[in-house]
Write the structure tokens for this entry.
Amino acid sequence: MTILVTGGAGFIGANFVLDWLAAGGEPVVVLDKLTYAGNLDNLAALRGDPRLVFVHGDIGDAALVSGLLGRHAPRAVVHFAAESHVDRSIADPEAFIQTNVVGTYRLLNAALTHWQALPRPEAAAFRFLHVSTDEVYGSLAPDDPPFAETHPHQPNSPYSASKAASDHLARAWFHTYGLPVLTTNCSNNYGPFQFPEKLIPLIVRNALAGKTLPIYGDGGNVRDWIYVADHCAGVRRVLEAGRPGEIYNLGGNQEKTNLDVVRTVCARLDAVRPRADGRGYAEQIAFVKDRAGHDRRYGIDARKAERELGWRPAESFETGIEKTIAWYLGHAEWVEKVTSGAYRDWMTQQYGGTGA
């Protein structure tokens, strides 16, 4: 048996594949387009491992996906592949529609055809796990309860709208065609292999380089943070025991303002890699113009996953940050390789030069 993982060379997908095979899971076929955030170096530890088959391709290529399903006959599809950066979605929404909506539609269709042709025992065991985000739920007021799985989809950015659309497609393919779909909605991930346009690796990189640490608006936007290994464990558990047609929220129970996150990262760097001048990294913080339509607060209620599946995160934000910063400090070469000229151009465009 095998599983097909889309986006398996990206941040969360690569961590999932590494954790899956480390835990003795069956072989994996990874399908990844290798856009700017997809990186084969993320899977370097598995180079030469016969349990991993890598395919460079697009989930929107229906013929390619159908061929992979027919050739490898996976027992499950775990769908991580997505355009995921809100700022990029504001600047270029079309790429998000093509990958997150059209690509998911074509992947669902190919999986449906594959599933319908399976013998009954294999069909009963097959799963399509759609990995999504808490951003589809919209924004919470300070005193609102966190998002439960029953919260309506109220997306506010092109990115979250494209992911909400993919959630609805996944739901429809279950209810209309019977495809055994599982959906997870997770909070903000952090950890090894995250592309340095995202907040935590951006702050680590800029701090060490002596550059400003850009924070949108007043820094008061709140997110729930989950260490990527905890998220991967949750996805594995949902794949193992989740009920088809159900949604499972996966969160870290760690709501923090962006400013608190940056200050925590700075304090940790002060302790393990202090500035040569003896001053604190927090002095490099700079507030920049707020993002258009910036959601004020996300919070995740993950009690369903704990109640039904026995899953809960193992890391606190503090322990997760320690592991994350240690990884980035120990992998400076990886960071430099992924921060290409195109990436620096993007950061200059986005932050007016403060992030480049």
